[in-house]
Write a structure and sequence with these properties.
heterodimer; A: mainly alpha; two-stranded antiparallel sheet; 5 strands; about 70% helix; globular; B: mainly alpha
Chain lengths: ~425, ~325
């Protein structure tokens, strides 16, 4: 019996995706918006990074579909897809593609003789790696070509879908091919080896780093998403009404932003942790507790990043409110609320969008630092910060254990790099002042 | 201008009061002092007597906001713990040490890392940014920007871990971590400074490049070029001084905060500065120290903002503060 479980962050992610889809649909109706967006991805590097980003998002979504089966353990669809790797726990460290454990262990045989051996890994089936990779590449390529053929047939043949010239569709196509090959290679090797080795307690590093994608995405997107309404409301109000409203809101955000970010986050997380410990009965499942901690971290991070956006929106609203079209609508008898909703906020969308994408990579990086400080996500949640935190002592060992850090590094770096390049594109397209 | 400075300092008082109230709410309203006592005494098997004793020993045995027995506002936790911060009297930490003394001992190591790191990263970033702006549009520029974006995408933690591994363990040029007093501390300082500078290149150089490009597109540069000045003279004599204005005024806001040190570098490299003090306090849930650091940090930040405004007036005579 499979019961779906919807955690708080899952629900928020689905709401976020629905909102984004709705906005995309709305933007696609308007020609000038379509043209502006085209500027955001009209560069090959930006197109490629957008495709990679989308791929991460898909993994994140698959990992957000939670269910539980008989037991109290909550799993996601991604766990199911990566099933053997998720469940195969070795005893301790092993190197990538190793067949034996990394450390020697003392074995006592029946006669009482003590020997030092490096035990074989339990869940590794040594095979010819090159053969496997070749098969996987072949499968990946054919899958990709099949998809392209279907796409070509349906959209180009049947619906006569015309492609805009000047948009690097070929880059998108090639990137998709690369990703498809990589996924197939990973899928094949995952069953026979630990691709990135295993960590201290024998967990698969590759699995951990893939699971961390969701945590990174949640922190990068939900943080801004949760605080966006407050930033827009307060920023627009401060700029529109001026006077004492402005003074009060300014006072609030100057006060909050004058506390050093890390300290405010640490203080809030520490206190809320005590609150959570007092109300443990609220969370019947382990996953709900760790999820709540993740959500709290998002809210707290939002509390500190909210002020910057609010200040920018206030400044922009100050400029807007004296423009002629606002005066005209006031003369026509629109109420303040209507003016803010219909005329001010739509003119702030580009700023909000830019700050949303620009904040994303910073927040993903901040998660790692906060986990190191000890106020990040729950220690049992898979996150790159937790991986780095538990792996940093291992570099001191001889021979060195580098693969945990490597796994976290590769995925985190590709996500943040793709996000940074994409953010540059969005900023160039929407910021009139961008050089 | 003096009038402006005095007004700004007066405005800082309600802001700091707000900060104090914020931390007060976080530390004493959300969690009662009883919770803190339980946390420090270790949870389950703690008697009420022990809690009361702990609270008495650390001065938490007072009412929160108003003392109705003595009819005073001063004999309360808010006054004793939060208002005393205004006199820079931080009291004792929850583990029983004098916070003022700890700060006095620890600010020097923090500064010995932070100041050289700031200076070197300024120089390195300006040089790189200027080179990219000089070759704007060319290969050096576009690859430079791309490398900057790549460097920006690497977490600070990887810079530290990688730097420690490469420089200290493989090459063995400097010790991995530690600190000494006096001039012998240099060998401990080099690596943290190097790592901080390297981690800052991505964001810093790219940001400064935009300042340079903004200046290059201005009219007076076109005039200089029309006069027949060579491109490198224009860069050094005209663009550099003018691009330095936003760069340096941007740095001023950071200056007071250097005092607080860097959380990550100090704790990784075992520097006994204020950054590692803070991080230890967070890890040990020493609320008294965190509270003191929040206050100190806010004071320094507000000071930084004030200095920034003043520096604008100094470098640009068109700006009048009032």
């Amino acid at each position: 019996m499979i019961t779906p479980v919807i955690l708080w962050t899952d629900a928020l992610i689905f709401i976020l995706i629905a909102t984004v889809l709705w906005l995309i649909f709305g933007a696609a109706q308007k020609d000038y918006l379509r043209q502006q967006w085209r500027k955001a991805y009209a560069h090959p590097a930006r197109m490629a990074s957008m495709v990679i980003l989308l791929c991460f998002v898909v993994i994140g979504i698959v990992d957000s579909l939670h269910y539980r089966q008989h037991t109290n353990q909550v799993k996601s669809v991604l766990d199911w897809l990566m099933q053997p790797t998720a469940e195969q726990q070795e005893t301790t460290y092993s190197a990538p593609f190793a067949t034996e454990l990394f450390t020697r262990q003392m074995i006592k045989d029946a006669q009482g003789n003590i020997t030092w051996v490096t035990p074989k890994l339990q869940f590794v089936h040594p095979e010819n790696v090159l053969n496997k990779v070749l098969i996987a590449v072949g499968e990946g390529l054919s899958f990709w070509l099949l998809l392209s053929a279907i796409y070509w047939f349906v959209f180009v043949k049947l619906y006569n879908f015309h492609i805009y010239v000047g948009v690097p569709w070929r880059t998108a196509w090639l990137t998709l091919g690369m990703i498809s090959v990589l996924i197939f290679v990973a899928k094949h090797l995952m069953y026979s080896y630990h691709i990135f080795g295993t960590d201290k307690i024998g967990g698969d590093v590759f699995y951990a780093s893939v699971k961390s994608i969701r945590t990174g995405l949640v922190i990068g997107t939900l943080t801004t998403f949760i605080t966006l309404p407050f930033a827009i409301l307060f920023g627009a109000m401060a700029g529109y009404f001026r006077g004492w409203v402005d003074d009060t809101i300014q006072y609030v955000y100057i006060t909050i932003s004058s506390v050093p970010g890390v300290l405010l986050i640490a203080a809030s997380v520490l206190t809320l942790e005590v609150v959570m410990q007092r109300h443990q009965d609220l969370f019947s499942l382990m996953a709900q507790r760790t999820d709540m901690r993740l959500l709290i971290l998002c809210c707290v991070l939002g509390l500190t990043s909210w002020t910057d956006l609010c200040r920018i929106i206030r400044g922009e609203t100050l400029k807007l409110r004296d423009q002629d079209f606002i005066l005209a609508s006031r003369a026509m008898g629109l109420s303040n609320l209507q003016i803010i909703r219909k005329h001010i906020v739509p003119n702030l969308v580009h700023i909000i969008l830019i700050s949303l994408v620009l904040d994303f990579s910073g927040l993903v990086l901040a998660e790692a630092v906060l986990s190191y400080v000890g106020v990040g996500v729950d220690p049992t949640t898979y996150s790159w910060g937790n991986m780095i935190n538990s792996a940093r002592m291992e570099l001191g060992r001889d021979p060195v254990i580098w693969w945990s850090l490597f796994g976290a590094f590769i995925l985190m770096f590709s996500l943040v790099l793709a996000a940074n390049i994409f953010a540059d594109g969005v900023r160039d397209a929407f910021d009139p002042k961008a050089v | 201008m003096w009038y402006y400075i005095i007004r700004r300092i007066l405005y800082a008082i309600p802001v700091l009061l707000g900060v104090n109230f914020l931390t007060f709410i976080l530390f004493f309203m959300v969690n009662t002092p009883d919770d803190i006592a339980y946390l420090h005494l270790g949870g389950k098997h703690v008697t009420q007597q022990e809690v009361t004793d702990w609270k008495a020993a650390h001065g938490y045995d007072l009412p929160l906001l108003y003392n109705s027995e003595q009819h005073s506002f001063t004999q309360t936790i808010f006054w004793q713990k939060s208002m005393h911060l205004f006199a820079f009297d931080f009291g004792v930490s929850d583990s029983g040490r004098d916070i003022n003394q700890s700060i006095a001992e620890r600010y020097a190591p923090s500064l010995s890392i932070a100041i050289p790191a700031l200076l070197f990263s300024l120089i390195v970033n300006i040089v790189i940014a200027m080179t990219m702006a000089f070759f704007r549009g060319g290969y050096i520029d576009s690859w430079g920007v791309f490398i900057c974006v790549m460097l920006m995408s690497i977490s600070m933690l990887f810079f530290i871990v990688g730097g420690q591994y490469l420089v200290a363990r493989i090459l063995k040029w400097v010790p991995v971590s530690g600190y000494a007093d006096g001039w012998s501390s240099i060998k401990f300082i080099i690596l943290p400074v190097l790592v901080t500078v390297a981690a800052d290149i991505g964001a810093g150089a790219r940001w400064y490049r935009s300042f340079f490009l903004e200046e290059i597109n201005k009219d007076y540069i076109r005039t200089a070029r029309a006069k027949g000045l060579s491109e490198d003279v224009i860069m050094l004599r005209h663009v550099l001084p003018n691009a330095l204005i936003p760069i340096l005024t941007g740095v001023v806001v950071l200056l007071p905060l250097l005092f607080m040190g860097s959380l990550l570098t100090e704790s990784f490299f075992g520097i006994p500065g204020l950054g590692s003090y803070t991080i230890d306090a967070i890890r040990n849930q020493d609320f008294a120290v965190v509270r003191a650091m929040v206050f100190l940090g806010s004071v320094l930040y507000i000071l930084g903002l004030l200095l920034t405004d003043i520096s604008y007036v100094i470098v640009d005579p068109r700006i009048r503060l009032n």
